[in-house]
Amino acid sequence: MVSSRLRYAGSMTGLLQDAIRRVESLSQEKQDAIAAQIIDTLDDEEAWSRSFRDNPSALKTMVREALEEHRRGETRPLDELIG
């Protein structure tokens, strides 16, 4: 277990520090679950970044395909999907 006295030399935002403080009060099981979610999100972001860095035309292709789907009426507003 990491000591709650560990400090991060100013490289962490206040919001992230607040989140970490709240997570520290949870059980080890819940801390690990949250840590796994964070790591999965960071890994996913890195994979997308790497994909676009290695193949710059991929993003343009995805945008073109999305716009074509929208023109054909195959899309829905985001708030319909999540609301």
Describe the structure.
This protein is mostly helical and 83 residues long. It has a domain at 27-82. The protein has 4 helices and no strands. The radius of gyration is 19 Å and the shape is elongated. The mean pLDDT is 88.
Features:
single chain; 83 residues; mainly alpha; elongated
Distance between termini?
39 Å
Topology pattern, helix = H, strand = E: HHHH
Q: How many whole angstroms does the radius of gyration measure?
A: 19 Å
The global form is elongated
Low-pLDDT runs of 5+ residues are none
Helix content range: 55-70%
Number of helices: 4
* Overall average residue pLDDT: 88
User: Which structural class matches the secondary elements?
Assistant: mainly alpha
**Secondary structure tally: strands:** 0
For the sheet with most strands, the description reads: none
Provide the fold topology.
Layout: H1 14-24, H2 28-54, H3 57-71, H4 78-82
State the gist of this model:
By secondary structure, the protein is mainly alpha-helical. The chain has a domain of about 55 residues. The protein is built from four helices and no strands.
